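Lecture 7 notes: from sequence to structure.
We start with the chain below.
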Amino acid sequence: MQPYLVVVLCIISSSKADINNKYFPESFQFGAAGAAYQIEGGWNEDGKGESIWDHFLHYNNPTSKVIDGTNGDVACDSYHNWQEDVDNLKKLGVKLYRLSISWTRILPDGTPYQVNQEGIDYYVNLFKALKQNGIEPVVTLYHWDLPQHLSDFGGFLNPQLADYFAAYARICFENFGPYVKYWMTINEPTSTCGMGYSMGLYAPGYTLIDGGMYQCAYVTLLAHAKAWHVYNDEFRAQQGGKVALGLVCSAQMPLDPNNPKDQEAAERSHLMGCASFGNPVFVGNWPQVMIDRIAAKSKEANYPFTRLPVFTQEEIDLIKGTSDFLPLNYYSSSLVEYIDELVGFPPNAWFDISVVTSANKSWPQAASPWLTSYPEGLRIILNRLNKDYNPSEFIITENGWSDTGELDDQGRITYIQAHMSAILDSILEDGVNVTGYTVWSLMDSFEWTAGYTEKFGLIKVDFDDPQRTRTWKSSAKYYQNVIATRCLLNQCE
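Predicted C-alpha cells for the same chain:
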C-alpha cells in the first residue's frame, strides 16, 4: 500500500459518519443503468443472432449455471417495453441512462458481413426518445454478450477478435454517434475474463485457470484500443464524443493497517486487479509487479515462458492514452491479508497474487454474497485512481444494492444515500471531478448466475406477468427526490 492511501484511510476513519448535507453541483448528472442481455429479451426476434449467453443457457443444464434455472430470453422485455422505460427515466428526472447494445442485434453473427437494419432501428428509436426527453445515453458496446459465432473462433482468447470488435464499433459509431456522446467500449473486463475465461462461471464457461484470464485481458485491451482509435481517427472531429474502457474497482485495504506485510498484500491485490486494466490504458503496459510475479510463478511451474502475454512496444503505444474519461463500477471493498507464497500448486491466476481477501463482518451484507456495503471504499478508490491516472472526469457507471425484491427497500436507500455521500465528499473535499452517477439498476433484471433471485432495481418487475409490469419502489421515490433537490437529506445547506 502506498503511504498516501494510509493517510486517506485515517482521514475517513476520523471524520463523522453523517451523510453529506451539501448540495450536488448543478453540473452533476444523475442517472440509472441497465444492460442488453439483462433487460431486453427478444433474444431471437427481428434478425437478432445468438450470443454466448443465449448459447450458454440454452445448450447446458441451466440449473447448473444459474441458481433458479432461468435465462434472459424475455427478461424485462425492454425490446417491446422500451417506451415505458424511457417514461420511467423521465419521471425519475435523470439526465443519464447507461445501457448497452446487443452486438448480435446489430450484427447477427458478429461479423460486418450482414448488418441487421431492424436492430439498428431499435436503438435509433430508443436513442431519439431519450434525447427528446433530455436524457443522455451512456452506451456500452460490449456488456458480456459476445456473438456465439465469434466465440467459436476463440472469443477473447483470439487476438483477431480485436479487429472484429473495431469493425462492430465503427458500425455503431456510424449509426448511433449523432445521438451518443459517452461511449464505453467494454464493461468490467476483470469480471468477464475472470468469470468467463478462468473460473467458468459466466459465458462462455472456460475453466482456463492457468492463463485464460491473462489472454482474455490482453485481447480485451487490444479490442478496446482499436475501437478507441476508430472513433478518434474517423468520428471524433464530427461527433465530439468520448470513449473509455469501463473499470470495476474496489478499495483493497490491509487487514492490519499497521502490518507492512498486509499493506504490501493490499497494494499487490490492487495492482493485479483494478490496475491490470487501468495501467495499460493510462500509464502503459501491465503493472510491474504483475509482470514480475507471473513470470516468477510461471518459472516455478516449469514454464519456459511467462503466462502473461507480453505487449510489444507498438501495442503499448496503441493502448496507452485511450481513455477520454473514467467509467467506474463500484459495489464493495475488501480487507486483504498477507500469506506466505503458495508453492507446489498448479498454475493459477489467484495463486499468482497469493493473498487472502475478506469483508469486515460489521459491514452490511446484501442479498448478493459478494456485496457488502462500505461507502468509504468508494471515496478511497476515487482518490487512488485520481492520483494514479488523473482522468479528465469520472462517471460512476454502476453502484447498487441487492435484496429479495421488497417494495419498501430501505436497505437500498441507505446504500445509495451513503455511497452518493461518499461521492459528494470526493467532489467537495478531495477535488475529484466526478460528473455523473448511474445507479445499478433502473429496474430488476436478470442477474447472471443469480438469475432473478437477487433484485437491484429501483423499479420492481413482475417476471410472472407476461406484460412484465413495472412498479416503483421506495428507493425510486427517494432517488427522484434527490435528483429534484440535489440533496441527500430532507434539507441541505
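Points to note: The longest strand covers residues 136-142. Residues 212-234 form the longest helix (23 residues).
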